[in-house]
Predict the structure.
Amino acid sequence: MLPRVSSLPSQNSPFHPSHPGSAPVSGSEPGSLRIGVDLGGTKIESVVVRLPGSATTPGRLPEVLARTRRPTDRERGYEHIVNAVADSIWDVASQAGLSPDRLPPIGVGMPGAVTRAGVIKNSNTTCLNGRPFRGDLIRRMGEPIAFANDANCFALAEATFGAGRGHEVVFGVILGTGVGGGIVLPTPDYPLSPGLSRPMLGRSWNGPQGIAGEWGHVTIDPEGPPCYCGRRGCVETYLCGPALEADYRQRSGQALALRDIASAAQAGHDPHASATLQNATRWFGRALATVINILDPDVIVLGGGVSLLDCWYNAGRAEVSRWVFTDELTTPIVRHQISDAAGVLGAALLPTSSPALTAEGSR
């Protein structure tokens, strides 16, 4: 087993297991417990949470009873990742004092999607592609597990507890080392929350091919940069963090981290930095307008490290309005509210919000 990586928030954070709002696991309320796993390219994060109230009390985040992080070490290959995720689940369950033969429902968010044949596709952790990760993990755990794309998990958490709360259709955007998206729709048979226009818990929508929301791999320039997916000119090749850094390097002849590019552009003393962000906002406008034209969501929530740039919310919004098929852009484009915990909290919600994603179901 890999050693646990201790990387918990401060004790004042509601995400720290010892936060005063948390409490030991109670055997009298097992139905409120969930395990969530966020399988990323660099880390595996797992939590045991107690869902508030009826799982979706407005404004209240789940209480995190235990949380672990460990490196993915994806260069060690497929079998290592299967074992590391399983060990992470056992590890966090043990930390929360749960019995290994009576685990609560489990949800896993991961890059890519599961095909009808049960194998992974479109993952930027490429050793997973073509492999039956879902089935192998279920067999390894001996438990049913709900799976969804990591961007869908982000969108589900923000729709339930964060910036998308109170809206019917939420489009969650990941702008980071890659570009992804997730769609949350209202659950028709879920009781309406007083004062809200949507059910308190939405459902993650994968689509029949598992690619719903994947705006990052829409081609916006067939002659553009090559993408890991095998195509050229995908949205991701223009808007992800490495793409912005590469654009600046090509313009200026020197390498800067994205945060330094943003600072230089804001200070107004580096025309190359300004040009990089201006170019990015143009592509952002065209790409996101296409999403709005097709989905017309009630709100768009931006997450990931690149979403912290101010340009998306002013110049970027203006560019979206140039391309959207309406005379007035009313769609809110807002920052996330749940920091980097949204992915793992959304994964914990999967068994409740999207039971069809559990076990061997393909959707």
